[in-house]
Each structure stands twice: as structure tokens, then as C-alpha cells.
Amino acid sequence: MGDPTLSVMEIWGAEYQENNALLLHPSNEQIFTALCTRENCPFSVVGTVSGDGRVKVEDSSDIGGGVAVDLPLSLVLGDLPPKVRGCSLAWSLRIEPK
Predict the structure, then answer these.
(1) Taking a C-beta distance cutoff of 8 angstroms, is the pair 56, 70 a contact?
(2) Residue of 77, 74, 96 whose CA lies nearest to 21
(3) Can you give the residue range of the structural domain that contains 20?
(4) Number of folded domains in the chain?
(5) Segments of 13-82 assigned E as strands
(6) Which has more confidence, 81 or 70?
(7) Tens digit of pLDDT for each residue in 26-79?
């Protein structure tokens, strides 16, 4: 990271650190990994959905596994309408190894 004086909360919340996010069902992680590998597109799995309505970010540099961010999801998302995308496959996706 650039500035070592920034807290985990500051890094997580800073606009210049924003990335795109994608919510995947765990059963799709393997095919997504293969697709990203094939397309040379780096990605990171950064968490899991717990269903408790909160966003929690752990500080990996904290030996005790401290939670650096613990906010209600409603505060993070505000009044954004949920985006729902529908998809039906008319073909089978096959990922060929390089």
C-alpha cells in the first residue's frame, strides 16, 4: 500500500481504492477462477456473506484477527436500489486449459 499511516478503515473507504465487486455463489467460484485465469484477469475473494446484515472487514495485519470495520449494511449501501441481473444459459461454457 502507498501510505503506511492510513488505517484499514481509511483504506477500505477511500474512493481511490475502489474496485468492482461481484457476488458469487460458492458453487461458481471454480468456474470463475478458471475464467479469470484464462483471461489473465486478476481477482481476489475478499469475504463471504454471513446473512447478519453487517459489513465486517478484518485487519489481516492484526495478529489477533481484529475487526477494523463493522458497519450495518444499510449504512454502507444507503438508499441504493438492489441490482438484480437475470441470466439463462443457452449454451455450455467450457474453459480450455492453456
Answers:
(1) yes
(2) 77
(3) 8-77
(4) 1
(5) 54-58, 67-72
(6) 70
(7) 899 999 999 999 999 988 887 778 889 888 877 777 666 678 788 888 887 777
